[in-house]
């Protein structure tokens, strides 16, 4: 079915179906906008807490790019908690010889939020 045939079928559909399609379309749009707003807020948090001084979204700076981190830990259910701990306490040896410093200016909630955001970037 091409687009114009699909639109004609929708125009001829009963009102209840039109309302249902419109409701689902707007709900999907709202979820998409909410996701992008949260992604922007999380990136703003990473910038505000100086994470972006050593990391970028898609390439290595001093530390790995966030997309590479997300790929490395894809499917690992314990990764978010471990990354949040590493964000707070620092660590080393996983991505090379340069250790990640502790980020004591972050709260546990902020570290959890950043870890979840990084893992969502794959």
Describe the structure.
With 122 residues, the chain is mainly alpha-helical. It has two domains: 1-37; 49-122, Cytochrome c-like domain (Cytochrome Bc1 Complex, Chain D, domain 2). It is built from five helices and no strands. It has helices spanning 3-12, 15-48, 66-72, 79-89, 108-119. It starts with a helix and ends with a helix. Mean pLDDT is 81; it is low at 26-37.
User: Percent helix among the residues?
Assistant: 55-70%
Summed up, the domain count is 2
Q: What is the H/E order?
A: HHHHH
Strand count, sense and closure of the main sheet?
A: none
CATH class of the largest domain: Mainly Alpha
Mean pLDDT: 81
Radius of gyration: 21 Å
Q: Please give the alpha-carbon distance between the first and last residues.
A: 33 Å
Overall structural class, as computed from helix and strand content, comes to mainly alpha
Q: What's the CATH architecture name of the largest domain? A: Orthogonal Bundle
CATH superfamily of the largest domain: Cytochrome c-like domain
CATH fold topology of the largest domain: Cytochrome Bc1 Complex, Chain D, domain 2
- Low-confidence stretches are 26-37
From the spread of the alpha carbons, the general shape counts as elongated
Determine the number of helices (DSSP H or I, runs of at least 4 residues). Answer: 5
How many strands appear in the DSSP assignment? 0
Strand percent estimate: under 5%
